[in-house]
Amino acid sequence: MTAVAATAQPVARAASEPLHIGNLTLDVPVILAPMAGITNTAFRRLCREYGAGLYVSEMITSRALVERTPESMRLIRHHESETTRSIQLYGVDPKTVAAAVTMLVAEDRADHIDLNFGCPVPKVTRKGGGAALPWKTDLFRDIVERAVKAAGDIPLTIKMRKGIDSEHLTYLEAGRIAEGAGVASIALHARTAAEFYSGTADWAAIETLKNAVTSVPVLGNGDIWSADDALRMVRETGADGVVVGRGCLGRPWLFGDLSAGFTGKATKLEPNLGFVATAFKRHAELLVEFFDGDEDRACRDIRKHVAWYFKGYAVGGDLRASLATVQSLAMMDDLLAQLDWTQPYPGPDAEGQRGRAGTPKNPSLPDRWLDSRELQETHRAELTEAELHHSGG
User: Fold this and answer.
1) What is the dihedral of CA 297, 300, 304, 308, to 10 degrees?
2) Contact at 8 Å (CB) between 277 and 339?
3) What are the backbone dihedrals phi and psi of residue 160, each rounded to the nearest 5 degrees, phi first?
4) Residue 328 phi, psi dihedral angles, 5° rounding
5) pLDDT tens for residues 58-102?
6) What pLDDT is recorded for position 309?
């Protein structure tokens, strides 16, 4: 198959300053948000082929890493082309998180470490983890302070949400605590756990945090579906950079748009179907490499990306179904050959929200979790069950 180039749509841009996170300098202030089951080495490499930025691993549980489980050790592997190795950790026990950070530093496995405090998944918040954890300010402070100390010269950052719900916001206090602890940057997904991914992200909260935290970069996350969205977020909130999650699902070339936008170049990719098919195949090939040559596993993994890649394009239902059950790269080639590779970019139908938004819901929390901002002994046992591997929020 021969790649078919995307067209470039002129768009007015304004160049930005490099982003400094500790001793790291990013020419483009863009970070790939950790997404469980998505931001593995294969996807990170693919995104990097289109544009610059910092590409973070999918979330890794600190307990599993300390125990050196085979899966956690595989997830922290980086390809030699990944010159800035970025790993996100999730944990609820200060000692375990510190031990995981110590291991990464001592074994020279990371150049940047991020801590996740944004997961809204009920299985996590029900035990006091994820977005529920910053409510306990003493526990949050202990985790961050120990992690920063263990990281030493390696930049350690955090990503969090606004809070549990609109009545129990935590982001301003957590931001000040993290700043005081010495983190290198703070990223805010401008939704509460109760909102999950629904509605519209509250970009005003990013501006509020930026005004409250003045000594380290503040990054914005939420509802960035295009380079224009990213530039508008920075312009409206004063954020030092952006964190992009669902907007790049099935669109790794978004990082090309972002690189162009933040460096003042007037380019927006409008890929035809041949360009998309080529990217899809490349993704699958990189997954085969990531899974150590296991083509069957790679094909099973790529299936979940089909709807995202071909969103808005005229691809028949039977062909979509076949791609979503593809069993080999040879079968993929046969299916992609049936596409009209010259089909032009469909415009708005291929843009906008990607991934499931969900609906607002009352967050699941440990019994009497909201009674105090300090951790109670009765909650410690529940916290040990909160270290589950779920999407980062």
Assistant:
1) 80
2) yes
3) -145, 175
4) -160, 160
5) 999 999 999 999 999 999 999 999 999 999 999 999 999 999 999
6) 98
Does the predicted TM-score (pTM) go above 0.90?
yes
Q: Which of 294, 299, 371, 285 is nearest to 331 (CA)?
A: 299
CA 247 from chain centre, in angstroms, equals 10
Question: What Rg value do the Cα atoms of the chain yield, rounded?
Answer: 21
Q: Scan for tokens 């999918």, then name that residue.
A: 58
Tokens of 205: 């909260």
Which residues partner with 187 through β-bridges? 159, 219
Name the amino acid, one letter, at 355: G
Are the beta carbons of 54 and 86 closer than 8 angstroms?
yes
- Residue linked to tokens 């415009």: 347
What is the C-alpha to C-alpha distance for residues 240 and 16, in angstroms, rounded to an integer?
A: 9
Q: How far apart are CA 301 and CA 305, in angstroms?
A: 8
**pLDDT at 377 > cutoff 80:** yes
Q: Which two tokens stand for residue 53?
A: 């930025």
Question: String of b and e for 201-237 (b: at least 16 CB within 10 Å)?
Answer: bbbebbbbbbeebeebbbbbbbbbbbbebbbebbeeb
Angle, vertex CA 35, rays to CA 40 and CA 301, nearest 5: 50
The beta-carbon contacts of 333-339 under 8 Å, at least 24 apart in sequence, are 333/1, 333/281, 336/1, 336/277, 336/280, 336/281, 337/1, 339/273, 339/274, 339/277, 339/315
Q: Which residue has the tokens 């791609």?
A: 323
| Residue corresponding to tokens 């000040």 | 176
Does residue 248 have an active-site annotation? no
Enter the DSSP assignment of 222.
S
Choosing from 47, 119, 248, 299, the catalytic residue is 119
